[in-house]
Amino acid sequence: MKRYILAHDLGTSGNKATLFDEDGKLVKSAVYPYELYVGTNNSAEQNADDWWEAVCETSRQLAVEVGNKNIAVVSFSGQMMGCLCVDKCGKPLRNAMIWADMRTTKQADYIKKHMDEKEFYKLTGHRLSASYSLTKLMWIRDNQPKIYENTYKMLNAKDYIIYKLTGSFVTEPSDASSTCMLDLNTLMWSDDIMRVSGLDKDKLPDIISSVAIAGRVSSRAAKETGLAEGTAVVCGGGDGCCAAVGSGIVQAGVANCCLGTSSWISVASKIPIYAENMETFNFAHIVPGYILPCGTMQTGGGALGWAVKNMYSGINDQTDLDNAIYETMQNEVECSSVGANGVLFLPYLIGERSPRWNTKAKGVFSGLTLNSKRGDMMRAVMEGVGYNLDIILNIFKNNGARIDELILIGGGARNKIWQKILCDIFNAPVIVPNYLEEATSMGAAVAGGVGVGMFEDFNAISKFIDINEKNIPDLTNAHIYSKMKELFENTYQALNEIFEKM
């Protein structure tokens, strides 16, 4: 009788539960949305009970499909950099502050005043900002002291669900590394960060392996979820790290490039990659013994979506974008040329993280003439995203990372022209797998399978992935792009002073 893995991906907009069999085949998935509460003070919160409801509902749906006793393990991918305070009974004391909550700039500034930024970077793997769990927990202490006092543990999204299923208060290295409270060199909570921040280390959960069995489904949780009592629960990891595994980033030599609303590049490395100007950052990978250096830009696919909606009339919803307009846009981009006939686009529509770390950076078209066409502008958007990602890629290469090829995932990877543009800009083979938006679920599933002995190691991801496309760079195009990349950088630097005044 077949055994199955149930992987939950707790995202920002909802939970996606996916069943895989032991051969890596996707059997069925179910999605359950939940609310995001955004305030005028840069707050972004979610109700943890909504997460649990979503997990219960989707688990019930999928357990019926194969019989709950045939599910060998439940594992997780979850949104990172959050802060949920719970009491000793695991009851949430307030809504969770999620990764998008940016009201904690005062706390971030405090850390910057009391700890050298480069020392912080080399300790945690991250450049300090208001997006991390560290400053969120400090904000709660400073603004809601009773809640902080009554906090038994601070958890991330998947860690809370693991508690609800098993009664265990635990996390694992990938999510812990997203808090900016982990010493990336020891994979233990940092005493130095606790000292500078004034936070209580006892309020942080125990750290176990990403492939460890955190516990087993309790009788109470079994009744709520439809899962069999005693089913193994394996931690899994943070969503970015699970996505890396799900796209095959389980050893050195391969990088992944995600073209979602935001876009990023990550690589597997035995040691952290510390960029000289702190342009990139590092997570602990869910693959034991590996670090996951990353660089994330704010708008990748989001920049293209913005351009399409503003340059093509008649778009009412995502279906229109995917269908009627898509073919027209593709044809027009194909009629342009490599380098977009001299049009450049800076894709900084909401500021930028990697590699700029400049909240004041703006989106810019340059090089427009009376001869410029809509297709040139659309191609310039695709190329501009590619130039920015290439800067991140070269930071990794210049710091010793071996990158032989890139795996392209995310919704934007469906765009065949964009595949080729990126391939030529990167001047490296770009591979497109069969599942473009299931990488996080697949990574969590492999972690679960390794955890219960179904798979020997993370190389089992090869069972899940088939290659749909392999793009090989055109050397002539790559040469043209090398000149355009220099112009892209010069354009940003020339406008940087102007951005400061806007």
Automatic annotation (TrEMBL):
Carbohydrate kinase FGGY C-terminal domain location: 255-450
Lineage top rank: taxon: Bacteria
Domain Carbohydrate kinase FGGY N-terminal span(s) in chain numbering: 4-246
InterPro entries linked to this entry: ATPase_NBD, Carb_kinase_FGGY, Carb_kinase_FGGY_CS, FGGY_C, FGGY_Carb_Kinase, FGGY_N, Xylulokinase
Any one GO molecular function term: ATP binding
Alphabetical list of SUPFAM superfamilies matching this protein: Actin-like ATPase domain (SSF53067)
Catalytic activities: D-xylulose + ATP = D-xylulose 5-phosphate + ADP + H(+)
Family statement drawn from the similarity comment of this UniProt entry: Belongs to the FGGY kinase family.
Family matches, as PANTHER family: SUGAR KINASE, XYLULOSE KINASE
Identification of the protein by name: Xylulose kinase
Organism encoding this protein: Ructibacterium gallinarum
Organism placement in taxonomy: Bacteria, Bacillati, Bacillota, Clostridia, Eubacteriales
